[in-house]
């Protein structure tokens, strides 16, 4: 199984927890933080941001990915997402596809945590098998 070095995992966990503290989730009350590790070893964090017009809200992973792209990152190596528990959080379908755009699905680690620590880990390929991605468009 792919594993992150413990110090890198700790950095991701701390960044995601700090981002979760910034969550704007007045409607669901489900606060989420995410931290993305890019190809240069930089960490980019984000929280979920809801909206009174409910469908306009977005996930913590989307905020973190946007931060990565704006900082010049193009390939995510790992994403740690942390929610309130007790159920293990997993990225929604839309976020799996967003992550697909900026990763190699077989090696992107998705790590789920809650306030008590890390709970589960998958690759993006496990969560989004047979995915559609940038390569599908390159022969046109
Ligand atoms: N949410 C995330 O930010 N990330 C996830 O992985 C799952 C769900 C948010 C969206 C919404 O603001 C709240 O959690 C409840 O669905």
From TrEMBL:
Its cofactor is Zn(2+). Residues 7-135 form the CMP/dCMP-type deaminase domain. Zn(2+) binds at residues 59, 92, 95. It catalyses: 2'-deoxycytidine + H2O + H(+) = 2'-deoxyuridine + NH4(+); cytidine + H2O + H(+) = uridine + NH4(+). One of its GO terms (cellular component) is cytosol. The active site is at 61 (proton donor). Keywords: Hydrolase, Metal-binding, Zinc. CDD domains: cytidine_deaminase. It holds the Pfam family dCMP_cyt_deam_1. GO terms for molecular function: cytidine deaminase activity; identical protein binding; zinc ion binding. It comes from the Bacteria. GO terms for biological process: nucleobase-containing small molecule metabolic process; pyrimidine-containing compound metabolic process. Substrate binds at residues 48-54. Its EC number is 3.5.4.5. NCBIfam families: cyt_deam_tetra, PRK05578.1. Belongs to the cytidine and deoxycytidylate deaminase family. This enzyme scavenges exogenous and endogenous cytidine and 2'-deoxycytidine for UMP synthesis. This is Cytidine deaminase. It comes from Paucibacter sediminis. The lineage of its organism: Bacteria, Pseudomonadati, Pseudomonadota, Betaproteobacteria, Burkholderiales.
């Amino acid at each position: 199984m792919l594993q992150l070095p413990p110090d890198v995992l700790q950095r991701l966990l701390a960044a995601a927890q700090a981002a979760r503290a910034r969550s704007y989730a007045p409607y669901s009350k489900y606060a989420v933080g995410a931290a993305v590790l890019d190809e240069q070893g930089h960490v980019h964090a984000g929280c979920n941001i809801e909206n009174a017009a409910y469908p306009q809200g977005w996930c913590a992973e989307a905020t973190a990915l946007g931060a990565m792209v704006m900082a010049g990152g193009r390939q995510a190596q790992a994403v740690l997402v942390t929610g309130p528990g007790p159920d293990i959080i997993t990225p929604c379908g839309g976020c799996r596809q967003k992550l697909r755009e900026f990763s190699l699905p077989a090696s992107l680690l998705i790590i789920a945590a809650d306030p008590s620590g890390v709970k589960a880990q998958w690759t993006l390929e496990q969560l989004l098998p047979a995915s559609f991605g940038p390569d599908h468009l390159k022969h046109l």
